[in-house]
User: Fold this.
Amino acid sequence: MEFGIAAEDQAFREEVRRFFEKEKSDELMREVDSGLGWGPQSREFFRKLGARGWLTPGWPKEYGGLGASFMAQFILVEEMDYLFRAPARPIAASIVGPTILLYGSEEQKQEFLLPIARGEVEFCLGYTEPEAGSDLASLRMWARDDGDSYVLNGQKIFNTGCHYADYHWLAVRTNLEAPKHRGISLFIVDLKSPGITVRPLWPMDGGRTNEVFYDNVRVPKGNLVGEVDRGFFYMARALDLERVFTVEELRLNFLDLVEYVRQARRSGQAFDSGPSIWQSLAQIATELEVGRLLSYRVAWMINNGVVPNYETAILKVHSTEIMRHLASATIRILGPYAQLDEGSAEARLGGRAWRLLANAVRRNISAGTSEIQRNVIAIRGLGLPRT
Assistant:
């Protein structure tokens, strides 16, 4: 059986590829590969996408989209992941905007959706706290009702993007008496507000994330998203959107590795070869094909109005496992050369091997740990009881 996509979606893919080839530059690639976040090259690239309606093709036209299917949105994400060798989708367009479309006020839609669609503003996620990561319902950051605004105090951690984003997509506690899942609200916070301090954290993969401190920060009540105390349920829906992963970044790294092995064999270079290596590469090729089909299934579900719940958890776990297997095979094949960065004359595969391994470790934790994802699969997918 052959799986395909609609002719108009395939035509959109070809148009996107031509555009990416035209706009791709060494400066843009270096900026994205640095792991430091949006800089001038990235902002200009996303503005060009926004000018074509490509940041949000599935949105209604009145909000800056093309009124296209979700499949068009998914195709764009696939091509971006392949182009950059890493997820580079804007938080504003992929998570914040769709949530505002579902739950935001008309005023919020008018204020934020068109700038998001044009690539003019970016958001960062404000979920995790020192004592609330996998269990987001345990967050403690507090918002006190104070007339026409809320006063926010507390700390967030691992908030990637806060050093360059314009707004914080922030989850805070607004009800201390309600059950913990029912006392959380979502806010849009201008990161230039007085009382916000952003400090860098440097993970092992060389990128940057942040810890963020709020000291009596005033946020207008008009920046409350949806209903008060319903934020956890909005976050849960947004997380389903966040976990629509593709395997294109991994496929590109895998193809580079296979080509390196071919060339090394032809030129007689020494490396760890033999049946076990061929078995590993064949297994990764199989896992990549499964991952591609899983990602298309999730895209198909969303395209048909079905919320992927445990399906996104399966996709997230599977793509994380592929990255781990690919990183292990790359390290084994390259041997000591895997430690070299791109600045070394002896580096192999562009000096990306060590970062691939570091990313594999980080990906096991970020966007929901693999342990939590497996719990979701067991409880929601298999109907097993909570322990």
Observations:
- The longest helix spans residues 275-303.
- The mean pLDDT is 88.
- The longest strand covers residues 209-220.
